[in-house]
From TrEMBL:
Keyword annotations from UniProtKB, A to Z: ATP-binding, Cell membrane, Membrane, Nucleotide-binding, Transport
Domain annotation ABC transporter: ranges: 6-241
Gene Ontology molecular function: ATP binding
UniProt keyword annotation of Nucleotide-binding present: yes
Organism expressing this protein natively: Ramlibacter aquaticus
Family of the protein in this entry: Belongs to the ABC transporter superfamily.
Source superkingdom: Bacteria
Protein name: Nitrate/sulfonate/bicarbonate ABC transporter ATP-binding protein
């Protein structure tokens, strides 16, 4: 049996609407991310995907239920879990190298070691030579590569990707997705579980071992679909098309 990396039980979260009334976004979410799997979390805009991811990352507290990472409760950001954001979330005044080193600084890694590890990660993400550049000097795809390098430089066990490809044009997004899958398949990243949030069914079917669908009313996991196809997958193959139809 594969170990669970993340384990969410009956997670609840409400926000106040503009008129001050509470609105329950997550209403008893149960979810497990197991070691060795890529799971895609699908759901309409506003269904609470980003909220759920932020709760898993320890960035937002849940109102109720439990969240654990390898058996330990998650109530603040934990070493071992990294997140990639749709809008890249880079610090514009810091260089690429400095942005990537940030996570290591928080862990107290000495400067020389930080530099070495950031360099290696920039190489891996196809950004060698760009360490001194500022984010605004890069294309969207390259900025997201920096976002991913920053997430991976701490050697996370779990990678949470919140619509990481949706701000990019189709081709750039596909290239980056393929690169991530190659690193995963070749074990070039230490990461043992990936959760990709998406609203793109094809992207989910291309990447995931399992697709989980979040419904908005009430905010719960509605259904699951296991994609038992080896990667890399061909987007035009009959099998991939059949899974896309099934998820619809
Ligand atoms: P998704 O990522 O699936 O589009 P979100 O998790 O971003 O959904 O948002 C779910 C709902 O929660 C939305 O209605 C959103 O407006 C609301 N929401 C999210 N974050 C906050 C917040 N910090 N304050 C108030 N409402 C929020
Ligand atoms: Mg979102």
């Amino acid at each position: 049996m594969a170990q669970s990396l993340l384990d969410l039980r009956e997670v609840r979260k409400s926000f106040r609407t503009a008129d001050g009334a509470p609105r329950r976004v997550l209403d008893g979410v149960n979810f497990v991310l197991k070691e060795g799997e890529i799971v895609a979390l699908l759901g309409k805009s506003g269904s609470g995907k980003s909220t759920l991811l932020r709760i898993m990352a320890g960035l937002t507290p849940a109102d109720g239920g439990s969240v654990s990472y390898r058996g330990r409760p998650v109530d603040s950001p934990v070493d071992g879990i990294s997140m990639v954001f749709q809008s890249f979330a880079l610090f514009p005044w810091l260089t690429v190298q400095q942005n990537v080193e940030l996570g290591l600084e928080a862990q107290g890694v000495p400067a020389a070691e930080r530099e070495k590890r950031a360099d290696a990660m920039l190489d891996l993400m196809g950004l060698s030579g760009f360490g001194g550049a500022l984010p605004r000097e890069l294309s969207g795809g390259m900025r997201q590569r920096v976002g991913i390098a920053r997430a991976l430089v701490t050697q996370p066990d779990v990678l949470l990707m919140d619509e990481a490809f949706s701000a990019l044009d189709v081709l750039t997004g596909e290239t980056l997705r393929t690169d991530i899958l190659e690193l995963w398949e070749s074990r070039s990243m230490p990461t043992r579980g990936i959760l990709v949030v998406s609203h793109n069914i094809e992207e989910a079917v291309m990447m995931a071992d399992r697709i989980v669908i979040l419904s908005s009313d009430p905010g719960r996991v509605r259904s699951e679909c296991v994609i038992d196809l080896p990667r890399p997958r061909d987007a035009d193959s009959a099998q991939v098309r059949a899974f896309i139809d099934e998820v619809y």
